[in-house]
Each structure stands twice: as structure tokens, then as C-alpha cells.
Specification:
InterPro entries: Glyco_trans_29, GT29-like_sf. The protein is built from ten helices and 14 strands. It is α/β, with parallel strands linked by helices. Helix 5 links the parallel strand 8 and strand 9. Helix 4 packs parallel to helix 7. Bound molecules: 2-acetamido-2-deoxy-beta-D-glucopyranose (6 copies).
């Protein structure tokens, strides 16, 4: 076992780090790398990173949740008493067995979530929902009726007040101040008031919806999984979702693209996933993400995602995924992890490809030479995510393409 402690200072190393984790703006990084010779689940090296852009949202005390901002947006008190007819009821998930980070402020209310009153359970007899509801590990926490998307119908001053206390992406705190009510509201108004990631309603539908979630893992290089991936009803992709030139391995169809403001930074314009048939699922992670979204809404962004196809992830869904499923002390799940959770809570049959990291393969399937995956644990906990995919697969809830590793 090799153990090394190094301070990354050179621009080269810094660039490599950016490529590896898309964290962006890594300033001072100290990482401890523990390398093992096996490629098993537990072999993701432990990395300690003192500061990344994502983890900047952590307060000085190291909490994921900043203290509430001292200045609050003044709101018309009359608005407060108007009941929003679009909002479903709130529900709690028992957190007696979820022991991590009890010291966080708002711990108790962190387990209260908005229900989607339009949600219909699947009537597909083979649905993963049936297995998940009765699962020993996940039966108590699987709530596909949670409000997954937020839109302007579901956003009002009460809802803003309820959500404001948590740090983005779990709410609207960012670096000790609140993202303004108007800022969120005006952004959401640019996109349709849809509460499903599918254009068809569940109601009266007996067909089973099959989904493929395609991560960017190097495990797909040479996999020839393209045809199998394309055969699913829906194909989810994330970040730099290259397909052209990689069809044999990753397929060519994209129906859902999951992204945040820096997803496409390293991608050439001609490879951007753009199309009228693609649903764009946005994960707001920083304050800047709202102005990024507005440039998509008003067509001034170079990324020409049709605004009518854009959906925004609900802060409650993010909090549910993070606290209830991931239960880890990192900033947020990976964007690929969020994509998987979205599909798990919407599809009847789910297959995961290119998910999880492994040193046998390069970081990404599109790398031109081998690039080692470098985890940034303050931002994401990849080990926990790999464990989740493994357990979901072993319980037959999802299919996880493992190739010759994991
Ligand atoms: C959820 O739990 C909180 C306290 O933990 C309680 O105040 C609230 O009434 C509960 N809400 C629901 C909908 O059960
Ligand atoms: C939070 O929940 C715990 C039980 O999980 C309870 O003992 C405690 O009183 C609650 N705190 C508040 C402020 O509601
Ligand atoms: C969906 O099914 C679960 C498990 O049978 C049940 O607990 C839940 O109430 C159902 N939800 C809806 C909206 O019908
Ligand atoms: C978009 O979807 C429609 C309806 O399913 C289909 O007819 C059309 O060929 C699709 N367009 C592209 C570019 O895939
Ligand atoms: C589009 O939105 C951005 C972000 O809010 C704004 O800066 C820009 O002026 C807008 N452009 C147009 C043409 O509306
Ligand atoms: C992708 O696979 C090919 C053939 O298996 C191999 O030669 C190449 O080095 C791989 N690419 C990377 C970036 O690992």
C-alpha cells in the first residue's frame, strides 16, 4: 500500500484535478492518496481536500449548513396566508436510524418533504417500485411520490421561507446570504410548470418504463454496450455526454440530460446534447446557477436547450437523496448519482452503465489517454454511491453493468 501526501500547486496538476472532478476553481488542495492493488469496492482511495469551489459553501465550522443570513427578504405578509392549491402535503421520513450529522442545524426539519399530489404508483407488474417498497434496506425510505421537480406553480413565499434555511442545493442559502425570492421565482417562471420528467402521465398507463442511466466511466470504453443502452425507452446522460464517435460503447440516443452550470465547460460546442426531444434536468448548486438558467431561458446561453424542455430539481428531492439515501458528510451527491436517483424514482426498470469509478479503467470513456480518477471527498462521496449501486443491484431493484470489476 502506497501512501503519499502532496500539495498540489502547479497549474498542470490543478488542471488535471479540474478535469477529474469537474469541481472547478480548486484553490488549495492537499490530498492523501491511499492506493491499493485490488480493484474492489473498498479500493477508492481516501482523499482529503481542504477546499474546493463546491465545498466553499461549507461554513467556517465545517457544517454543511450555514447559519441563516441576518438579512431576509421583506415579503408582503398577506401573501403568506394564501394557500397554494398546487402544493401537495408535507410528509416526514423517520430518521431514528440515520445517525450521521445530528449536530447540523435544522436536523429535525431536514426530514420533512413535499409530496407530489399528482403522483401515481406504477401499474407495471414488474416495476422496480414493487421491489423497492418491500426491500429490507430501502422499503422504509423509498418515496417516489416526493416532489422531484420545482416549478413556478410550486414556488411561493411560504415555500421559499420553508426552503430558505438550507444551503443550496438543499435550499436557498449560499455563502451566508439567501438567494432572493425574486431571483428563484423569476428564473422558474421561464420554464414550464411540469412536475414529471416524462411527458406522459402515469395515469392509466400499464406499460413499463425502462430507463438506462449512462455515466461517463471509462468502464464503457470498449464495452460495446451501445445497442443495449439504446434499446431502453429512455436514456439518461450527464455532464460531458459524448455520443458521436462512441456509439458502439455508449449508444446514440439521449432522452434526458442531467446537468449543472459547469457540466459542459470542457466540451466542444458541436458535441453539446441539443434536441427538441431531450428533457433537460437542471441541478442548481450555486447562486450563479440561477443566472446561468436564466441565460438558457432567454436563449443567450451558447447551450441551446429549448426552455420548454427544462426541468429544475426540487431542493426537497436533493435533501431526500443526500440525507436519506446517501447519509454522508460530503457537499452533495455526484451529478451522476443525482441522475440515478431521479431515474430510480421515476422508472419501472433501470439499468446503470458507466457508473462507479475504478482504477482498471480511465476516468472517462472519452479520455484520449489514461486519466486516473481522483476523488474529492468534501464534494462527493463516491464510495457511498458505489455501495448503493451495489446494494440496489444485488436486491434486483436495478441492473448495474459491472463488466469485469466491482
Ligand atoms: C414532521 O416532524 C416535525 C418534527 O420532527 C413535526 O413538527 C411535524 O409536525 C411533522 N410533520 C408531519 C407532516 O408529520
Ligand atoms: C429532534 O428530534 C429528536 C428525536 O429524533 C428529539 O429528541 C428532539 O427533541 C427534536 N428537537 C427538536 C428541536 O424538535
Ligand atoms: C404507492 O404504493 C405504496 C406501497 O404500496 C403505498 O404505501 C403508497 O401509499 C402508494 N402511493 C400512492 C400515491 O398511491
Ligand atoms: C422526436 O420524437 C418524435 C416522437 O417520438 C419522433 O417522431 C422524432 O423522430 C424524434 N426526433 C428526433 C430528432 O429524434
Ligand atoms: C438573459 O439573462 C441574463 C441573466 O439574467 C441577463 O444578464 C441578460 O441580460 C438576458 N439577456 C436578454 C437578451 O434578455
Ligand atoms: C480505451 O480502450 C482501448 C482499447 O481497449 C485502449 O487502447 C485505450 O487505451 C482506452 N482508452 C483509455 C483512455 O484508457
Amino acid at each position: 500500500m502506497l501512501s503519499s501526501l502532496s500539495v498540489i500547486e502547479s497549474a498542470d496538476m490543478l488542471k488535471r484535478y479540474l478535469m477529474a472532478c469537474l469541481a472547478g476553481g480548486v484553490l488549495f488542495i492537499i490530498y492523501l492518496l491511499l492506493k491499493t492493488s485490488s480493484f474492489a469496492i473498498g479500493s477508492v482511495p481516501k482523499a482529503v481536500v481542504t477546499r474546493t469551489e463546491d465545498s466553499n459553501v461549507m461554513s467556517k465550522t465545517g457544517s454543511l449548513f450555514d447559519e441563516p443570513a441576518t438579512t431576509t427578504t421583506e415579503v408582503d405578509i398577506n401573501l403568506y396566508s394564501i394557500r397554494n392549491p398546487h402544493l401537495g402535503p408535507l410528509f416526514n421520513i423517520s430518521h431514528d436510524n440515520i445517525i450521521n450529522f445530528k449536530h447540523y442545524p435544522y436536523w429535525n426539519s431536514s426530514f420533512t418533504f413535499r409530496q407530489n399530489s399528482n403522483w401515481k404508483n406504477s401499474t407495471c407488474t414488474e416495476s422496480l417500485q414493487k421491489k423497492a417498497f418491500t426491500s429490507k434496506d430501502f422499503g422504509q425510505i423509498f418515496r417516489p411520490d416526493i416532489q422531484m421537480l420545482i416549478n413556478s406553480d410550486l414556488f411561493d413565499v411560504n415555500e421559499y421561507r420553508r426552503l430558505k434555511r438550507w444551503t443550496i442545493p438543499y435550499g436557498y442559502e449560499y455563502r451566508g446570504r439567501s438567494i432572493m425570492y425574486e431571483e428563484v421565482g423569476d428564473t422558474l417562471k421561464m420554464f414550464p410548470s411540469e412536475d414529471s420528467i416524462f411527458k406522459v402521465s402515469r395515469e392509466g398507463q400499464t406499460d413499463c418504463i425502462s430507463c438506462a442511466v449512462v455515466g461517463n466511466g471509462g468502464i464503457l470504453n470498449g464495452s460495446r454496450m451501445g445497442k443495449e443502452i439504446d434499446e431502453h425507452d429512455f436514456v439518461f446522460r450527464v455532464n460531458q455526454a459524448y455520443t458521436r464517435g462512441y456509439e458502439d460503447d455508449v449508444g446514440s440516443r439521449t432522452t434526458h440530460f442531467v446537468f449543472f452550470d459547469r457540466s459542459l465547460t470542457l466540451m466542444k460546442l458541436e458535441h453539446y446534447p441539443v434536441g427538441q426531444n431531450i428533457t433537460y434536468i437542471f441541478v442548481p448548486c450555486r447562486e450563479a446557477d440561477y443566472s446561468y438558467l436564466r441565460t438558457i431561458g432567454n436563449g443567450t446561453n451558447v447551450f441551446k436547450a429549448p426552455p420548454e424542455n427544462v426541468r429544475v430539481i426540487h431542493p426537497d428531492f436533493m435533501r431526500y437523496v443526500h440525507f436519506v439515501w446517501m447519509r454522508v458528510d460530503s457537499f452533495r451527491p455526484t451529478t451522476g448519482g443525482i441522475m440515478t436517483m431521479v431515474a430510480l424514482h421515476a422508472c419501472d426498470k433501470l439499468s446503470l452503465y458507466g457508473m462507479g469509478y475504478n482504477y482498471k479503467y480511465s476516468n472517462h470513456y472519452f479520455d484520449t489517454r489514461y486519466q486516473e480518477f481522483l476523488p474529492v471527498l468534501l464534494s462527493h462521496d463516491h464510495t457511498r454511491e458505489i455501495k448503493l449501486w451495489d446494494t440496489l443491484d444485488k436486491e434486483g431493484i436495478v441492473y448495474w453493468y459491472r463488466r469485469d470489476v466491482f
